[in-house]
Design a protein that fits this description.
Layout (H helix, E strand, L loop, with lengths): L2 E7 L13 E2 L2 E2 H10 L6 E6 L2 H9 L4 E3 L7 H11 L4 E4 L9 H14 L37
Parallel strand pairs: 1-4, 1-6, 4-5
Antiparallel strand pairs: 2-3
Length: 154
């Protein structure tokens, strides 16, 4: 089964322009994310999806597979969709381009769920971390509310 990880990388972020190439301990963030995804045991191929020549050129300089996407893409999910129209895969995994500490085991857990449920028609799965009730929630944070079967309610 072909499992493709796509890492969307946009230069023109309103809050942090150039974030994918921002240096963390002298290495661009997108490179750190890519290195973590490479540690996954289940991902067959990784592609950076960008609309920016600087990111494209950086990836080429590191022999990282990269594809140019439309500047009309408003979200990372739009970039993943565009790549899915150009590259055939059984499963597409959207990896956030600003998670340089992403745990490869977490990626593999999401992939296993997608593989297991592919025949059931389940098209998406999201990794998440349980938070304690007394944890202070960030007002702009994204939170999932699940039922007892770990199915997302909202």
């Amino acid at each position: 089964m072909k499992i493709l990880a796509i890492i969307p990388a946009r230069w023109a972020s309103s809050r942090f322009p150039g974030k994918p190439l921002a240096l963390i301990k002298k290495e661009p963030m997108i490179y750190l994310v890519w290195k973590q995804v490479k540690k996954s045991k289940l991902i067959n191929k990784i592609i950076i999806a960008t609309d920016d020549k600087r990111i494209f050129d950086f990836c080429n300089s590191k022999d990282i597979d990269v594809i140019m996407t439309s500047k009309k893409c408003l979200t990372g999910t739009d970039r993943v969709y565009e790549v899915s129209k150009k590259i055939k895969s059984d499963i597409y995994v959207n990896i956030q381009g600003d998670e340089p500490l992403i745990d490869p085991n977490s990626i593999d857990k999401v992939v296993k769920i997608l593989v297991k449920n592919k025949k059931k028609g389940i098209l998406a799965s999201t990794g998440y971390v349980k938070i304690l009730q007394n944890t202070k929630k960030h007002p702009k944070g994204v939170y999932l509310v699940c039922n007892k079967k770990n199915e997302v309610l909202y």
